[in-house]
Design brief:
Elements: E1 9-12, E2 29-33, H1 36-40, E3 43-45, E4 47-50, E5 54-57, E6 59-65, E7 71-78, E8 81-87, E9 91-96, E10 99-105, E11 110-116, E12 122-127, E13 132-135, E14 142-146, E15 153-160, E16 165-171, E17 175-179, E18 185-190, E19 195-201, E20 207-212, E21 216-220, E22 226-231, E23 236-243, E24 246-253, E25 262-263, E26 271-272, E27 283-289, E28 295-301, E29 306-311, E30 317-321, E31 326-330, E32 336-341, E33 346-351, E34 358-362, E35 366-374, E36 378-381, E37 385-401, E38 405-411, E39 431-432, E40 438-447, E41 454-464, E42 470-477, E43 496-504, E44 512-519, E45 526-527, E46 539-543, E47 550-559, E48 571-575, E49 579-581, E50 587-594, E51 597-603, E52 609-616, E53 622-624, E54 635-641, E55 648-658, E56 663-672
Length: about 675
Amino acid sequence: MTNAKTIVRIALASVVIATSATVAALSTQSFVLDSADAFFEGELDGAAVHSDGSVRAGAATERTTLENVPLAYSMAQRAGAIFIGTGTDGAIYRVDGKKTKVLASTGELLVSSLAFGRDGALYAGTLPNGRIYRIDPKSGKTKRFSAPAGAKHIWALRYDKRRGRLVAGTGPEGKLFEIDDIGRAKMLFDSEASHIMALSGDDKGTLYAGTSDQALVLRLTPNGKVEVVHDFPGNEVTAIDFHDGNLAVASNTFKTAPGSQFKARSGKAPTPAGPVTRPRPGSGQVWRVDAEGRAEMLVGRKDTHFTAIQWGPDGSIYAGGGHEGRILRVEPDASYSIWVDVEERQVLALNLRAENPSFVTGDGASLYRVKPSKRRDAVWTSKALDARFASKWGRLTWRGRGRFVLQTRSGNTKEPGDTWSGWSKNLKQPAVISSPPGRFIQVRAKLPNDASAVLHAVQVFYLPQNQRARVSNVQGTRPPPKRGEKPRQPPTPTTLLSLSWKAQNPDGDPLRYRIAYREERQSIWRDMLAEDSVLMDAKYTWDTGSIPDGYYIVRVEASDEESNPEQRSLRSSAMSEPILVDNHPPRLEALKVRKRRVLGRVVDALGPIARIQMSIDAGPWRDVFPVDSVFDGADERFDVPLGAISGGSRIIAVRALDASGNQANREITVKIGK
């Protein structure tokens, strides 16, 4: 797969011309859809999206719905009649022109494969009981024909004209059987894989088989030799087609094992253990193996797996998808297009080299006939483009050639519905969008049945409604310890406070912050920053050394004025809880010694006192407790015995710290009696 551009590139333009190298956000924005993946994201109604990033008119189809049938899984064609194998009741339908009827009923869960034999009989492989039925294509008379030993799933049937035998690929033991004219099954090959999912071959008796859970393609030569053609990535080769010496291969990666969704109960009638088709899409690749055995990966998609593959009469490979009901047309040069996009979720079988090219779908069984002419009035519709906020739409512009018209519609729900506006009038040339303001917009292009009409790119300009940023959680804390430094209690005193806050910024505009403060008992705010000081970070270091001790409220205001004109800019603010500013030490008062006890008082303007220590004659400092044993106030008294020290002159030193780490020191010289 060629590298694709971003699905939707947001191109930004602004009325403001910035000279700096980096511009964080601008006003006018646009959706630019100019790549294959961007167009792939949309809906196709008769339009084809090419891997070169263009949209053109696609194939015209005619739909026949099989009423009340959930799944059309297999198909075959003979003499203008189309035969369709279905689930979940195992019926086979015959379609002649506009006439559709149930031809036969197998009583099984699913008719997984169909093939015509030499005698003109139609053979139907089924699951989950591993039976093959023989059906008269005219009368519908049905007979159980064969039940290969150990087989629970007949995934694929092929009639080998050269040897006059029916060949069946089976699971869950990965065996290949040949079945003679009276239904006797003989094992041709027992592979190491769990399932043989697909069969193809040439007119000389060579068979090709695709396997799972090993994604191998095997070649069985007419003399019985078995070779590995290629070991493909993934865990399943779901479909193969050999034509004109070349092999087309659909290789997929699934999380669930094939066949695990089918289960037979003890009675005659089977019952599904879950959906007949895989509930989740896998990822898939389309490969080509040429006559020399050279394997080339042509297309790789992570958003879908491939359920059917076939060479077209034009030399292109057609691959049916199992996720969004699309058929890819892959050219010999590996370029590709979404050739058909149908309402149903899965394209399960292709018959495009037949006289009447057709295919069938699952998740709602339908037959589609492909008409020889291109689709008239093909339509491509973008996905709902999300501007994130209510927006005013500007111009719709596009690039392309030929005649086509574009329309828009808008709304405020992710999925377009009745609350959306109707489609606008046709625009034949770029113009201002007339759809009403909204969060979402869709673009629709109508292309005539004209090979010269090609759409290359679409651009939608819009101005989002400006969104207010919200400030919260304003806090002031001391700067953290330096790297490698252990935190201290009480902390190291500092006049610096680290201010921080959170800003919820819905539209991502650059924000400018202004900070003001006031003492909690005052009403007048003082600016912390000069007006010409532009703060863009959600943090600031405040030096409180010049203000009195106390509790202060800090207010932070956020403004998006840096990226919006004055009339559109918005502001919001938030305030902190009271923040303590304490830069002054406590006082040591009434320090004295009486009756061999040291007495004193520590007083702080704010408190609380956090620690008191005493040293005698420059000895080690030891902690002392206040009289009430608890440090819980701004005024603490202490009364400490000197202990067993000898009399004489002594130097008594005391130091005290408040909760902010501010320290007071005092010493006295006293004479101690014996």
